[in-house]
């Protein structure tokens, strides 16, 4: 039997389609890049041509300057050499997409990063049946089972209510996580201004330009330190313990990340209130997605590749690790 998807090559720097002369999420600049979403470990600058959703191109423009790109709408099909490319939602962040590739009657889905939980800031994941499914494995261990986000937001608001003399400082990744936390706070009835670190301003503004309502956001510098008591403040994780955070009045330090399931990580970062909020699929969602899609073969990228490959093989699903380089944990 011929190997599945022999027309696709997996290199350490990305997935290559020789007959289309295109790379998917390459780690180095290339002539033609298909980009699944705007996080920096998938979307790098310097490509001669970029194919992505309108939102992902806008995010790349915001981060790297104008990109030589072609916007592809969800569900639209374009021809690259002898390969048909279609983008469908991945549910990860705004504009995130799975690359659905078809050639010679064979279909491969490169999912990029994805999650299965509802998210008011992006389109939900769309399962697509395929011969080969390329999946991430960021949280591919049974210990990672993310709780409902509503309960985490309720805990956050309860702490703020119980300790009004303290600011609530939330560490959140600047693209996707921060906007999701803000949108969920709004859904839970928090309509007061939310204060943000300057590093988050451009991306929050871009989300609003692209139609995502985040309510009133204000720079932390708008208020004197004492006036931030009882306020909710969002900042990049790197700002939680630096000089910038010292201007806040005795803050409750929180961190929104799937890694907050690991208590040692929370302690190492000095996090008083771990919030298990992730933009990646957890163990049950990874395995459930594979079961739902029922691919003939699974290729596994960054994370705990070995555990997910083992799970597949136990169920007689052929699986292998791709060992791509340059992939990072946006949640960290």
TrEMBL record:
<dbReference type="InterPro" id="IPR026360">
    <property type="entry name" value="Xnuc_lig_assoc"/>
</dbReference>
<feature type="domain" description="Metallo-beta-lactamase">
    <location>
        <begin position="11"/>
        <end position="173"/>
    </location>
</feature>
<protein>
    <submittedName>
        <fullName>Putative mRNA 3-end processing factor</fullName>
    </submittedName>
</protein>
<dbReference type="GO" id="GO:0004521">
    <property type="term" value="F:RNA endonuclease activity"/>
</dbReference>
<dbReference type="InterPro" id="IPR050698">
    <property type="entry name" value="MBL"/>
</dbReference>
<dbReference type="InterPro" id="IPR001279">
    <property type="entry name" value="Metallo-B-lactamas"/>
</dbReference>
<dbReference type="InterPro" id="IPR036866">
    <property type="entry name" value="RibonucZ/Hydroxyglut_hydro"/>
</dbReference>
